[in-house]
Amino acid sequence: SHPSGEVIKIAAGKTLDLHSQGTTKMPAGSVLQIVSSIYNGANDYGTTSTSYIDTQLSVAITPKFANSKILVEMVMNTQTPNGRGESRILRGAVDLTGYSWIGPNASHVFWGINAGTWEDSPSTTSAITYKVQSKALSGAYYYHSGGLISSLVLTEIAQ
Predict the structure, then answer these.
(1) Torsion of CA 120, 122, 127, 132, to 10 degrees
(2) CA–CA gap between residue 159 and residue 157 (Å, rounded)
(3) Quick count: other Cβ atoms within 10 Å of Cβ 92?
(4) pLDDT by 10s per residue, the chain, length 159
């Protein structure tokens, strides 16, 4: 405890443990934690399934506060050589994205980046898992194409 407007100085080599003094709260908009799932393999993965399948992008987070927002960012390199496909992001069984499609209606190779940013309000302090799923709408849909990096990044933001 110190008088309002005073500066607290910590000696070199010493630490200040705010948790031992009670509950601490970061100002609204503060980044509380960042977790990620990165695929950096040389293999292309693909599907001809018209049902969603799990990709290699999956990450768990345990929010520090129930009112936190989770900023969800996904980037995935894709290819549709003879059709179309789509990907979605799930928190547990909840679809956050609706869908995010890529691919032409005509039959020719189409490379692209399937990417997006979403804001989520999970309202929990329990561990939750976010993952990316993909499916073909027609033909074949390749994700993690070209040996490029794909990622799913979660940032917890204080409210």
Answers:
(1) -40
(2) 7
(3) 10
(4) 556 777 878 888 888 776 666 666 778 999 999 999 999 877 788 899 999 999 999 999 999 999 999 999 999 888 877 778 888 999 999 999 876 666 555 555 677 778 889 999 999 999 999 999 999 888 888 888 777 889 999 999 999
User: Cα(113)–Cα(143) distance, rounded to whole angstroms?
Assistant: 9
Nearest to 86 by CA among 117, 116, 111, 114: 114
3-state secondary structure of 147: helix
Beta bridge partners of 112: 78
pLDDT given at position 106: 53
Contacts 24+ apart (CB under 8 A), 15-21: none
Quick check: 130 and 4 in contact, CB under 8 A? no
Q: Are strands 69-80 and 141-143 parallel, antiparallel or unpaired?
A: antiparallel
Q: Please count the other Cβ atoms lying within 10 Å of the Cβ belonging to residue 86.
A: 20
The Cα–Cα gap between 102 and 82 comes to 12
Q: Give the span between the Cα atoms of 72 and 118, in whole angstroms.
A: 5
